[in-house]
Amino acid sequence: MLKRIVLSLSVLAVVLGCSNAPFTPAEREIITLSDSLMNVLTMPLDSAVLRAKSIDFSEKELSSPLLKTLMDKMLYTVTDPSQDGVGIAGPQVGLNRRIILVQRFDKEGEPFECYLNVRIDSLSGEIVRGPEGCLSIPGKRGIVPRRSTAHISYVYPGESERRSERVDGFPAIIFQHETDHLEGRLYTDIADTVFVTQGL
C-alpha cells in the first residue's frame, strides 16, 4: 500500500511540476527506498505511471549524485536474472523522467548504456516486424512493426551538451520501445498481434 501511495505522489508531482523541477520527495523515496533491485511496475495495476508522459531532468539533476544512484539501480534491475531485459525506462521503475538504458548490441562487448533527456528525432529505413516483450507486461509477447533506423538525441551521463546519433538494426528497435515508455505508450498499442507466453 505504501508503495502505491509513493507512486501516486510521484505522478502527481510530475503532473503539477515543470520540466526544470528538482527531484521531488516522492522521486527521492523511489530511488533510495530499495537496495539495488528496483520494483518493476506492471500493467494494468500501475497504468497511472506507465501511461503518463515523462519530463526532462534539469541541469541540476543531471549533476546530482542521486541520478548516478538511479542509473546504477536501473542497470542492476534490468540485468538481474529475474528481469533479464535488453532495455528499461524510467516509468518502469516508477519515475516519469526521460531516462532509458539500452543494451547496445551494435557495440563491442554489447554494453548497456544510459541515455538522459532522450528523444527520437526521426525514424527511417524499412519497416521490420518482429517479436517484442516488455518487463512491464510479463507473460506476453507481440509482433510489432518498427523502423530499422532511429535518429536520436540525448544527454550522456556526466555531460550537459546534447549528442545526436543514428542507430540501426535491433538497437534501433530497442530505442523505439524504450522511448515509447517515455510517451506513455506500450508495444501492445501498435502490435499486429499479442500472444501469451506463460507456460510455453
CATH architecture name: Alpha-Beta Complex
CATH topology: Peptide Deformylase
Shape: globular
Mean pLDDT: 90
Number of domains: 1
Q: What is the terminal-to-terminal distance? A: 33 Å
* Highest-level CATH class: Alpha Beta
Low-confidence stretches: 1-21
What is the count of DSSP helices, taking H or I runs of 4+ residues? 6
Tags for this model:
single chain; 200 residues; alpha+beta; Peptide Deformylase; six-stranded antiparallel beta sheet; 6 helices; 6 strands; disordered N terminus
Protein architecture, described:
- The protein is an alpha+beta fold.
- The chain has one domain (2-193): Peptide deformylase (Peptide Deformylase).
- Helices cover 30% and strands 28% of the residues.
- The chain has helices spanning 2-16, 25-33, 47-50, 59-62, 65-79, 170-182; strands at residues 87-89, 99-103, 112-133, 140-155, 162-168, 193-196.
- Strands 1, 2, 3, 4, 5 and 6 form a six-stranded antiparallel β-sheet that branches.
- A hairpin with an 8-residue loop joins strand 2 and strand 3 (112-133).
- Helix 1 packs across helix 2 (25-33).
- 36% of the residues are buried.
- The model is unreliable at 1-21 (pLDDT under 50).
Topology:
Blueprint: H1 2-16, H2 25-33, H3 47-50, H4 59-62, H5 65-79, E1 87-89, E2 99-103, E3 112-133, E4 140-155, E5 162-168, H6 170-182, E6 193-196
Antiparallel strand pairs: 1-2, 2-3, 3-4, 4-5, 4-6
Helix pairs in contact: 1-2
Quick synopsis:
With 200 residues, the chain is α+β, with helices and mostly antiparallel strands.
